[in-house]
């Protein structure tokens, strides 16, 4: 079992602590929190070992799980890598692209592995159809959330939209060539609602909307490709797959047939992939253990986390300052 320590015992940090404590692939050594009173409180309430010295915890583990505020990601990760510890780091990977690129260099220099916590990659709805998403040419994503003060220290792009950016980059095998975006601050000092249009070199276009001031929650993406439409509901964990194929010469009474202006007939049919219930956070943490043990590439590598951050920052840079 890999010895692991958690940095940060906030809302998400406590979830990580619980799951790592339950995991059969890790041995939870303890955790560190910069707020000593919170660290003592969490230790007393849940029984996890609290380290009030960061170096002591890092020296005692094989893997460092970084669940601290984004601004501290780089410093924590740099220290861990220089101690030759593998790192799991929550999204976004870092606060700046320069910091992310520096971590990539450190990862290679010290020969450790890193994974970024883009948890939607492990959403069972997405994993059930990811193999069927091939060369999408138009993608539409909506990620809407009711207002929650937690996370409003960063723009909604880094708080919410980055989930969809990463998922889209994982299925579009092409370079981003153009980004247009608009963002508006309503309650926070940073944008609370944003829309972005991402154009890829292969002609694919992705239209993303994210809001943290919605009256309802929604996390849905739709992928359009030749002869197929795929809808993924990340929130309800449901999928809808509609495909087309050449119509049979003698269609059945209940076959759905479409004919275009050129007289070509297509049959519409539906697929219902099996969706297995899972805990996506536990899956991403344990997949990282597998990558370490098998010396394989993590599902969401530091490079991929850096690519998602790069596009997110391009979107933020495209906002009209007078509208924010």
UniProtKB/TrEMBL annotation:
Pfam families in the cross-refs: GFO_IDH_MocA, GFO_IDH_MocA_C3
Gene3D superfamilies, per database record:
Dihydrodipicolinate Reductase, domain 2, NAD(P)-binding Rossmann-like Domain
GFO/IDH/MocA-like oxidoreductase domain location? 155-216
Which InterPro entries does UniProt cross-reference here? Answer: Gfo/Idh/MocA-like_OxRdtase_N, Gfo/Idh/MocA_Oxidoreductases, GFO_IDH_MocA-like_dom, NAD(P)-bd_dom_sf
GO molecular function terms attached to this record? nucleotide binding
- SUPFAM superfamilies per record: Glyceraldehyde-3-phosphate dehydrogenase-like, C-terminal domain, NAD(P)-binding Rossmann-fold domains
Where in the numbering of this chain does the Gfo/Idh/MocA-like oxidoreductase N-terminal domain appear? 2-118
Source species, domain of life: Bacteria
Q: Which PANTHER family match?
A: BILIVERDIN REDUCTASE A
Protein's UniProt name:
Predicted dehydrogenase
State the species of origin: Maribacter ulvicola
């Amino acid at each position: 079992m890999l010895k692991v320590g958690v940095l940060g015992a906030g809302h998400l940090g406590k979830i990580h602590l619980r799951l790592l404590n339950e995991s059969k692939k890790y041995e939870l050594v303890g955790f560190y929190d910069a707020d000593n009173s919170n660290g003592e409180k969490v230790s007393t309430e849940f029984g996890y070992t609290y380290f009030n010295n960061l170096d002591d915890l890092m020296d005692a583990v094989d893997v460092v799980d970084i669940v601290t505020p984004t601004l501290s990601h780089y410093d924590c990760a740099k220290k861990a890598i220089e101690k030759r510890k593998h790192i799991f780091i929550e999204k976004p990977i870092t606060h700046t692209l320069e910091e992310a690129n520096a971590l990539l260099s450190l990862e290679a220099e010290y020969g450790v592995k890193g994974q970024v916590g883009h948890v939607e990659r492990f959403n069972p709805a997405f994993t059930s159809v990811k193999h069927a998403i091939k060369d999408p040419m138009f993608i539409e994503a909506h990620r809407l959330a009711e207002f929650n003060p937690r996370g409003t220290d960063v723009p909604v792009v880094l708080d919410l939209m980055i989930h969809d950016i990463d998922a889209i980059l994982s299925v579009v095998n092409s370079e981003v060539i153009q980004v247009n975006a608009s963002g508006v601050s309503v309650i926070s000092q940073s944008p609370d609602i944003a829309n972005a249009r991402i154009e890829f070199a292969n002609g694919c276009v992705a239209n993303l909307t994210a809001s943290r001031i919605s009256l309802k929650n929604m996390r849905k993406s739709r992928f359009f490709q030749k002869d197929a439409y795929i809808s993924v509901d990340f929130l309800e964990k449901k999928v809808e797959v509609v495909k087309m194929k050449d119509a049979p010469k003698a269609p059945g009474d209940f076959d759905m047939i479409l004919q275009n202006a050129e007289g070509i007939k297509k049959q519409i049919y539906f697929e219902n992939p099996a969706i297995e219930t899972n805990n996506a956070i536990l899956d991403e943490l344990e997949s990282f253990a597998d990558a370490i043990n098998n010396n394989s590439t993590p599902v969401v590598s530091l490079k991929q986390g850096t690519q998602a951050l790069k596009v997110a920052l391009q979107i933020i840079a495209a906002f009209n300052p007078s509208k924010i």
